[in-house]
Design brief:
17% of the residues lie in helices and 34% in strands. The chain contains 10 helices and 27 strands. The protein starts with 7 loop residues before the first helix and ends in a 6-residue tail after the last strand.
Length: 458
């Protein structure tokens, strides 16, 4: 799930912005119809990622990750979160009918947590439509669909608990808060309305316990923002975002009173770029922006979202307060300076650089000593390499390997020492093998496991 809520400090900051949430509603008869119609376009994502080893000098290790996504185009275009695809070595998409298809990354956003992946199939796929998230109201019924905890397709019901939540992730935050269950693995899945259309992308959850699940406080990127980002990412020309050269801050009641503004909404200018359009329009720090083209904006993030989506060269009509008076000015939108179309974007070909080092399966290997034989009850005649530790969220744990297991054979060759294991993994990696077969001796039996070596074996 989203990294923000794994950090206690960030979680405490978010608490200050959270209101009381209602208990999740129960599913209703009409929900089943919506789920049947939408489920064919919702996918589970299974992938291997690399994670830096906890042991200095050791190569990165593989971890198995589960997430969600949804089809937005019958050609196989799928939307998910950027944090889902970050560092992915390999992705497979699992459809509701059980079909498992390899997926490739097309492009991922820089600041927005949105990514677009693609599957190649020989038939059109069911697709979901974007709904208008600006029409949402607190209390509206919603459903989440996705792959929580890697269990497979799951659905939960809830309501919109709050709108325009600021998680301090970007200057544009506008998260939908919902009490519909969002757990680890729901990332990238759709938040859908009573018509089965997408109103948001499930992205984050809040829980004081970094390893805990849903407590009824989840967050989704609104569909209007997500659909704009997707169109931008898929546009080969990628026009530059709009910019007027202001730094904005939210206006609270005390600032509003100090500046002679009638209500605490809008944004106060804290800095002006003298070379930017705002500087040429004679805007100043302490001016309080109220509206764009006559449309009031609630806070600094609303202004930033509106400006960044405007085309370069457009004349922007701003309403603002200065010295207790309401004034107007026109600003010509400029291109975001120092921006390049590929800035901050992660492309599919970049993933190849992540697999140059042989993977660390997440287990520590040691020689079998007399102390180890006594600790784990190993037979005196047993030879091989001892598994002394297994890390969380790694391939070895996924394969059922635990401390005390002994690797006795690899690819038909007997194992006598930890060096035999390391050499076998390195040789398999250099030979671009997909898998490496290991014979594991544990307390109950002797069985083979297949360790993935290249991305083809993930």
């Amino acid at each position: 799930m989203h990294r923000l809520f794994a950090l206690s400090l960030s979680a405490l900051v978010v608490l200050a912005f959270l209101g009381t949430t209602a208990s999740a509603r129960v599913m209703e008869t009409g929900d089943a119809t919506v789920v049947r119609r939408a489920s064919a376009a919702v996918v589970n994502i299974a992938e291997w990622k690399t994670r830096a080893s906890t042991q200095p000098g050791q190569p990165p290790r593989r971890i198995k990750v589960y997430a969600s996504g949804f089809v937005i185009d019958p050609s196989g275009i799928i939307v998910t979160n950027k944090h889902v695809v970050d560092g992915a070595l390999d992705m497979h998409v699992i459809f509701s009918n059980g079909d498992r298809v390899p997926a490739r990354l097309l492009v991922a956003g820089a600041m927005a947590d949105v990514a677009v992946i693609k599957v190649d199939v020989d038939h059109p796929l069911p697709a979901l439509k974007w709904a208008d998230s600006d029409a949402l109201q607190v209390g509206d019924a919603v459903l989440t669909m996705g792959n929580p905890l890697g269990l497979g397709m799951s659905v939960s019901a809830g309501i919109i608990s709050a709108l325009n939540r600021n998680l301090h992730d970007t200057p544009f935050d506008d998260y939908i808060q919902t009490d519909a269950a969002i757990n680890f693995g729901n990332s990238g899945g759709p938040l859908i309305d009573h018509n089965g259309d997408v109103v948001g992308i499930d992205t984050a959850l809040y829980n004081p316990d970094a390893n805990g699940g849903s407590i009824g406080i989840g967050f989704a990127i609104p569909s209007n923002i997500a659909s704009f980002v997707v169109r931008f990412l898929l546009n080969p020309d990628r026009p530059k975002p709009g910019w007027i050269g202001v730094t904005l801050q939210d206006l609270d009641e005390r600032l509003a009173d100090a500046m002679g503004v009638q209500r605490a909404s809008g944004a106060i200018i804290s800095a002006i770029d003298p070379s930017g359009p705002a500087g040429h329009a004679d805007l100043r720090p302490a001016d309080v922006l109220e509206a764009i083209d006559g449309a009031p904006q609630s806070d600094s993030r609303a202004f930033m979202r509106a400006i960044v989506r405007m085309s370069v060269g457009r004349a922007l009509h701003l309403t603002f307060w200065r010295d207790g008076r309401k004034l107007d000015t026109t600003v010509s939108v400029a291109a975001w300076p120092n921006y390049t179309p590929t800035q901050g974007l992660m492309r599919g070909e970049a993933v190849q650089h992540m697999i140059e080092a042989a993977p660390d399966p997440g287990m520590r290997i040691a020689a079998i000593t007399d102390e180890a034989r006594a600790q784990y009850g190993l037979d005196p005649s047993l030879t091989g390499a001892l598994v002394s530790a297994v890390e969380q969220d790694c391939e070895a744990r996924e394969l059922g390997i635990v401390p005390g297991d002994v690797i006795t054979n690899i690819q038909g060759a007997p194992v006598a020492s930890p060096d035999d294991v390391r050499r076998a993994i390195e040789a398999a990696h250099q030979a671009h093998r997909a898998y490496l077969a290991m014979l594991i001796h544990n307390k109950t039996d002797l069985h083979w496991v297949s360790l993935s070596i290249t991305s083809a074996g993930s």
